[in-house]
Structures are given as structure tokens and as C-alpha cells.
Design a protein that fits this description.
By secondary structure, the chain is mostly helical. It has 2 domains: 6-100, no CATH class; 109-194, Non-ribosomal Peptide Synthetase Peptidyl Carrier Protein, Chain A, CATH 1.10.1200. The protein contains 11 helices and no strands.
Length: 209
């Protein structure tokens, strides 16, 4: 079986010798590689912008694309049929069709509502998990973020404080929560120095989800 190479797949898309004198190949190689889970449309847009800035054209975009794939993603490319790609537009389409189903989808407000602080989970851990999910959700209202954060809390004192006086914004909410994490971590260190393993006494008895 003949070896499948970039040149056998990219029919009619050979790199010309007439690049602009300012063509900067290393600039392209410094851009983020595609590892298979990024949104392909967004990645291609950023990739094409870098190639244009480096002085390249659509031929360069097509021929450099395999170099910009991590090994797992490259396996998809090498499985394409010989002479199957005749233009940058064709390559973009097969690339997008293949990776759109595999890319990490943005979160939703429902995903955020499922983030709950586990019994005895330290507050700093809950804040981190909640924030990671929050950052994956586009265009979510601050009020919904605040409501979801408070509902997911097992920390009695902090939840009671927020229920008495809800924070006016996400920044204020996290600032107040971080003040409680400092006290909690100090208590954990004290227990460790005392040789005890008991968790901080600030959690309710709601069941684990």
C-alpha cells in the first residue's frame, strides 16, 4: 500500500515558490495546534488569520494545516483518500465536518445548576469547580450565576450570609466567598497540626448529589 503523505492528499495545492518575501513560516508554527477537541470553526478562523499575517495564502493554509495537528488529530488527516482535497475550501469543510461533533461544547445554565459542593468538600474546591463551569458558559446572566452558586453551597455560614444579603455581582460574591476559604484553610491547618482529621464544622447535612 503506498504511503499517504500531505502531497498525495492535497491535490493541486502544492506550495508555490513565489511567496511574499515577508512570508514567516515560523510565525505560523508558533500558533496553537489543534488537538481534536477545539471548536473547528473558531480554530480555523484564528489559524487563517495567523497565516495571512505571516504572508501566506490559501495554499499555505492547506499545506501547513497537517503540521498544526497534534498526533491524534493527524491520524484523521492521514486517513483521507489520496487526491481527495482540491482546494482550501474543501479542506475546511472536511475538517469542520469531522471535528464539530468531537469539540467540547459550551456549558449551559443547567450544567451550572448541577455543580454542588459535596459534603465536607472544601469551599476553595467548590469555588474552583463552579468557576470553571461558569467560564465555559457564554452569555449567562449574573443573577443566574449567583443563584446557582448559593444553591450549590453546603457551607452554612456563607449560604446564610448570602440569603440574608445577596451579593450585587459575581465579583462581590467571589470576594466574600474567598474570605471564608481563608478561615476554613486556617482551621484545616490547625486540625492537621493537632493530629485530627475532622472537617471544618461549617457544613449542613444535605445529601450528596
Amino acid at each position: 500500500m503506498p504511503q499517504i503523505t500531505v502531497s498525495t492528499i492535497l491535490r493541486g495545492l502544492r506550495l508555490s515558490q513565489g511567496h511574499s518575501k515577508r512570508f514567516d513560516g515560523p510565525m505560523i508554527l508558533r500558533s496553537p495546534a489543534h488537538e481534536g477537541r477545539m471548536n473547528p470553526t473558531q480554530w480555523l478562523l484564528a489559524y487563517a488569520t495567523v497565516v495571512r499575517a505571516a504572508g501566506g495564502d490559501t495554499s499555505v493554509m492547506a499545506n501547513y494545516l497537517p503540521i498544526m495537528l497534534t498526533p491524534p488529530a493527524m491520524s484523521w488527516f492521514t486517513n483521507l483518500a489520496p487526491d481527495s482535497i482540491g482546494s482550501w475550501e474543501e479542506l475546511k469543510k472536511v475538517f469542520t465536518d469531522n471535528y464539530m461533533a468531537m469539540c467540547t461544547r459550551p456549558g449551559t445554565k443547567h450544567d451550572l445548576s448541577r455543580i454542588n459542593q459535596k459534603p465536607s468538600e472544601l469551599l476553595c474546591s467548590y469555588i474552583q469547580h463552579f468557576s470553571e463551569m461558569r467560564n465555559s458558559i457564554p452569555n449567562i446572566m449574573e443573577a443566574k450565576v449567583i443563584t446557582a452558586f448559593i444553591r450549590g453551597l453546603h457551607h452554612r455560614e456563607l449560604r446564610s450570609k448570602f440569603n440574608r444579603k445577596p451579593p450585587t455581582g459575581i465579583g462581590e460574591m467571589i470576594t466574600i466567598a474567598n474570605q471564608y476559604t481563608d478561615a476554613e484553610e486556617a482551621e484545616v491547618r490547625f486540625n492537621e497540626d493537632a493530629g485530627t482529621q475532622q472537617p471544618p464544622h461549617r457544613y449542613d447535612d444535605r445529601p450528596d448529589d
